[in-house]
Amino acid sequence: MSDTLASDSWHAALHRLQRDGTPHVLATQVTSAGSTPREPGARMVITADAIFDTLGGGTFEWQTIAAARSRLAEQRYGLSLEAFSLGGRSGQCCGGFVNILLEAFPGAESHLAIFGAGHVGQEIVKLSAPLPWQLHWYDSRRDAFAGHYQQQPRLSCYPHQDAQQSVAALPEDTHALVLTHNHDEDYALVAALIERDDVASIGLIGSDSKWASFEGRLKRDGYSSEQILRVRSPIGHVHATKLSNKTPYAIALTVVTELLWLTDTPSSQENRGLDSQALRTLMTDSPTITS
């Protein structure tokens, strides 16, 4: 894969990538000793196919890029430290020593598919804007999105025609909400979603009677009890009692709250940062540079 040598500064790129939910690494030179291309505080941003700004060029910069992309490929997010002896590991003639702090960000933490651009769908999209979710929004009606949401970060809008095709296009571990204007569309989507074992959660808007009808139909169509139990309906029941306020905004609030709990999974990493003693040593002791 060839690099895109982007003209954005590291801070402009960092803002845009975090806004858009693109996985990336911020590399910061935190210490230096001897002769080095740049001083502490130099930064660059690295994605899978682009680099922004520079740590001074040379072999150690490309080693930094390789280390960053290795973390992205392996989804090892968080903080890590890379040490470079420029005359040793990196083979550069300046012969100094640098430590580079790598901060790997996953971009969007969760994927949310919203089927339906009606009043509740619109409110869910608005409320989700500040959250680290990648939104995939579908509707079968012409001009359903009307261009109002095209500038929202981490949001993609799609025409929906076929349930199987739309569901097949979803990333793994997507949380899906079904709230179209048409019950037949809703049913087709629910049936397609429960056939995918890798969908994180499935929510269906509607009344208890609507779900009872869908449940009976799914059983008649041969779906197993385990598949049917994956559907959460009605959505937004974060408390034992039902909410009497049924305005689109109120429903969306309960749905987004419910999703916050569903997406709040413990981190797979034990490391919550760099070891404090090692960091103190790093920041107070300089390596001995020999000729």
Automatic annotation (TrEMBL):
Pfam families: XdhC_C, XdhC_CoxI. NCBIfam families: xanthine_xdhC. This is Xanthine dehydrogenase accessory protein XdhC. The gene is xdhC. Residues 112-259 form the XdhC Rossmann domain. It comes from the Bacteria. Residues 18-78 form the XdhC- CoxI domain. InterPro entries: MoCofactor_Util/Proc (IPR052698), Xanthine_DH_XdhC (IPR014308), XdhC_CoxI (IPR003777), XdhC_Rossmann_dom (IPR027051).
